[in-house]
Amino acid sequence: MASPDYSDGCMIALYPPPELAQALAVDDGLPAEEMHVTVAYLGDAADVDGDALREIVAALAERQPFTAQLAGHARFTGGDKDVIVALVDSPDLEDLRRDTLDALQERGIQPPRDHGFTAHLTITYLDPDDEAPLDRLGAQQVEFTAIAAVHGTDRTDHTLEHPITGPAREAFAAGWALSGGPMTERVKAASTAAVQTAIERANDPHILEVTIDLGRLEGMWAKLFGRREEKQAEHTRLVTDAWRDLINRDAVTVMVDRFRSQANLTEGVRDFLSDALAAARSMLGALADLTGWTKVRQTIRDAIAAGNAEGMVNAVAIAAERAALLGLDWNLAFSDAYESLARLDELWGNADGWLGRTVDRAADDLGKALSQAAEDGASRDEMIDAAMDILASEDVDAVAFVVDWAMTAAADDGALRLYRSEGVQQIDVITAGDGRVCESCIDYEAGSPWPTLDVPRLPTHPVCRCCYAAAMSLSNFASWFA
CB neighbours of 45 closer than 8 A, spacing ≥ 6? Predict the structure, then answer.
């Protein structure tokens, strides 16, 4: 059934997302691109100044996008055609309608008053005797992100945006730029949240200053975590390279042959794990007697020292942020902190402990791989290749896992040691705010501030990204600031 021709009309309207309009479209109905919710119909376009209309709509667009509910459908009757519509329910739409009528009245534009207002989205026009093309329209939400000025065949869309949105976005970006931090997904998410907060508190005269502070804070955290990840990647590569130098294919072959002999693979299916783990631990336990062991030990010791130093810098960076002090030279601070750790003998003991964890984890990974290979009926050569993949690939999982954990623990130790040396009495636990945060971390953050001597030890678990934060005097670190 042909739709009425309104090409010479004039209105203010909302258009649904194209995918929703397409889903609502019916055969011989209104084309999806023409479906809309009329906020105010103004009659003939010739009777309304187009520029004035667009100015009104631009002003009305200074509000947040909103969500409405399609609450079933109805059949409007009484005219030359019946109209099948989706009913639209939203208090925000009612507010928009009221503001629209007020704005039109101020400009001397009076909408026709032939009908009352029932918010709806037209789906199709029918002859009075035609059957409806749908029996039921389920409730669903529709988000409106723009409002349109339609003047004859000319349609101008204005994005719905609260007037403080742009300034708040710029304020957050300015704060982030002051921090010198990288742009990350977390920073982007924080920007969205900060803008929303600014909208909710738009009447607060200081809200943009607060938004700048939020941007600087998120930028600092991004810088902090970005540097940690860079340091961990750097030292993971160094430790991996030293580790791979220890792995000899001939030794792996001997280990595999020993396992195959002990497991007596000709007996058929059985539990191979205990034999596989024993063989793996025996071979990896012998690594400590190899010449390259000293280099691996040194690289892990260096990684721990780097973690300690980075933690000390992080502690100062967080304190500086709390004091609104800018200009931290992160690289200079790291160099000074790292140099101060050069003669700490405890680093060697820590290195031996983490190196032992690396061997244990590699043995577990290797034992499980050999056991699975035996169950799958793998050949001798296939087992050797599988073992080499575990022990000597470009990315050795055991090394990456332990170096990450060791450097995170070292960073937390470095920060805690620095705070205590500076006489800090209370320390906060701050989570990274990402998907790695566990319930314990959330509880520790909620329990902040903690007395310095009672603060929970971090990291709480492997791959933990929580850290300590506290306010303190920065007079002893003036040389770290430009």
Answer: 8, 9, 10, 151, 152
